[in-house]
Write a structure and sequence with these properties.
Length: about 375
């Protein structure tokens, strides 16, 4: 066996062994049998909320088990192909085997991180909110770049992106926007992105071509279903309606269909304008408010809650979690994990896995490397 093939085989087998331990393999198989039996019970579907929860748990566990089995089979097939190609001196087939093993190795690395997503709401969909900082057009443009970056990351991973609200900047970009990102573990991956993001670049809006520093904040909260009780006193919530802006057809700017809710005790504000009627937007805005308040409760349970709250206090110097420097050099650096890369365009196009993975690992007390090649 070629040394590089043997090394990849060993790495994958190590990852598979780790995943089996984290799943508690025998217990996971028994639990899957139990969940399958519950799903097949016709009386379960008389209770739709419970049925959806059971079905979601079954799908998630089944996917984790299938991932392990597919990697085990894949590495066996890849090694067999490599050995045959090596014996026959077929370099093209050997390279195909290497490519197959590299793909499995990458999948194993991601699966290891996903196994860390064991938080109460990690498996849920997520709301991601972008707000520009002080600085007018510069910050608005940066906020728009961040919205694009996270949308591209989500779509690259097969997630669905829905724009719930968006307020355009006066000249460029956005003042604020909220999107819903739907798919397995969306909140688990995105939760560590909350905080202030700093951009340094030569401004396209400055005739003197001077460097500018801009700030924008990201806030992430889980989409919560009816199974999670969030007690909100209606008298604590102020409701405002206004005319929606942006794409939306003939009703846009003609009726006060957009809805903004303010939870006065926590000064939590959400807005929705995606629906075609005020009723639809009001219903969605309440879901978003429940999600934001639930996220606040989750933060209180974490040892780092105060640090996270401080990071959101001021969209400016001293509070950023990540810097994106485009001039005078090219570098994106996470100030919490020290992960950095010179591939700034790749990051702005949505290549965020290395940053998210390091933050996720750090959040559960594990260590990752500091430089992205």
């Amino acid at each position: 066996m070629r040394p590089d093939v043997e090394a990849m085989k060993a790495d994958i087998e190590q990852s598979v062994a780790l995943l089996r331990r984290r799943l508690d393999w025998d217990v996971a198989l028994r639990k899957l049998d139990e969940l399958n039996a519950r799903v097949e019970d016709p009386t379960l579907w008389d209770r739709p909320d419970e049925a959806q929860a059971v079905s979601r748990d079954r799908s998630r566990l089944e996917a984790q088990i299938n991932t392990v089995r597919e990697m085990e089979q894949g590495v066996e097939d890849g090694v067999m192909l490599a050995d045959m190609a090596d014996e026959e001196g077929d370099e093209a087939a050997l390279e195909d085997a290497r490519a197959q093993l590299r793909a499995i190795k990458e999948r194993a690395a991601r699966a290891e991180l996903e196994a860390l997503l064991s938080g109460e709401a990690d498996g849920n969909d997520a709301y991601l909110e972008v707000n520009s900082g002080a600085g007018g057009t510069e910050s608005n443009d940066w906020a728009g770049m961040l919205l694009r970056m996270y949308s591209r990351w989500a779509r690259a991973h097969g997630y669905e992106v829905t724009v719930e609200a968006e307020e355009s900047g006066e000249q460029a970009g956005i003042k604020s926007a909220t999107i819903q990102i739907s798919g397995p573990n969306a909140y688990g991956w995105l939760k560590s992105e909350s905080g202030v993001h700093r951009l340094v670049r030569i401004s396209p809006y400055d005739a003197a071509a001077k460097r500018h520093t801009s700030f924008a904040s990201i806030g992430v909260s889980p989409v919560v279903d009816d199974a999670i009780e969030i007690d909100i006193n209606p008298s604590d919530v102020r409701t405002d309606t206004y005319r929606a802006s942006g794409a939306g057809g003939q009703h846009i700017n003609k009726t006060d269909s957009a809805v903004r809710l303010t939870h006065v005790p926590t000064n939590t504000v959400v807005a929705c304008q995606a629906g075609r009627s005020q009723h639809q937007n009001r219903e969605q805005a309440w879901k978003m408010l429940r999600a934001r308040l639930y996220e606040l409760e989750l933060q209180k349970r974490e040892a780092a809650a105060q640090a996270l709250a401080d990071a959101k206090t001021d969209i400016g110097w001293g509070h950023q979690i990540r810097s994106y420097v485009l001039q005078p050099y090219q570098m994106v650096k996470d100030l919490r994990t020290e992960v950095e890369t010179s591939d700034t365009q790749g990051v702005l196009d949505g290549d965020l896995d290395a940053f998210m993975g390091a933050a996720l690992a750090a959040r559960v007390g594990e260590t990752r490397g500091s430089t992205v090649e």
